[in-house]
Design a protein that fits this description.
- It is a single chain.
- By secondary structure, the chain is an all-beta fold.
- 0% of the residues lie in helices and 48% in strands.
- It contains no helices and 16 strands.
- The strands form four sheets. A six-stranded mixed sheet has the order 8-16-15-10-11-12, with no helix packed on it.
């Protein structure tokens, strides 16, 4: 379909959220889009600028369903952080310092969301939320790191590898014996 009217929406936390409507070449945004990331492309297509991992999911175009998969950039973009067991680790989100960010980690081959923030509102999605916090420039703070925290983390598309080295552990969150 290249003319007429379509409404683009997506699944967000189990709810369908309308993004924009295109009618006879006129685009009307139906969500708050302060960063100007959503637009209309040729042939009534939805265009997402500066796409990130959090954009992955199911989209709808007036009845049609589109599954968007977002893959991480090359490993050349990987940041490496080393911290001693028991200390506080700060994982940077790279150049991104504003906007929507989802921090997740690779757990047994699956991404597990740790926390998300949008417009200053943060929600935590992990079983041990007191150990994780959002720091300056959207960095992820992990209090009292242990060997089990070592691994791959994601800040949207940015990959951060955390290495935890043995050390004297004074940690209220985990037994370090």
């Amino acid at each position: 379909k290249t003319t007429g009217s379509v409404t683009w929406s997506r699944d967000t936390n189990g709810q369908r959220e309308d993004i924009l409507n295109i009618t006879n070449g006129k685009t009307t945004k139906l969500i708050s889009d302060p960063d100007g990331r959503y637009g209309a492309g040729a042939n009534l297509a939805l265009t997402i600028f500066r796409v990130s991992q959090s954009d992955a999911g199911r989209y709808y175009c007036s009845g049609a369903t589109v599954e968007l998969t977002v893959t991480a950039k090359s490993s050349k973009e990987t940041l490496h952080v080393r911290e001693t067991e028991g200390n506080t680790a700060t994982l940077p989100c790279g150049r991104q310092t504003t906007g929507t960010v989802t921090w997740s980690r690779d757990t047994n081959g699956q991404k597990e969301d740790i926390l998300s923030t949008t417009n200053g509102k943060t929600s935590k999605g992990i079983a041990d939320p007191d150990r994780y916090d959002l720091g300056a420039n959207l960095s992820l703070i992990i209090y009292g790191v242990s060997q089990s925290d070592a691994g791959r983390y994601y800040c949207n598309l940015r990959i951060v590898e955390l290495t935890v080295t043995a050390g004297t552990c004074k940690n209220k969150f985990h037994s370090c014996a």
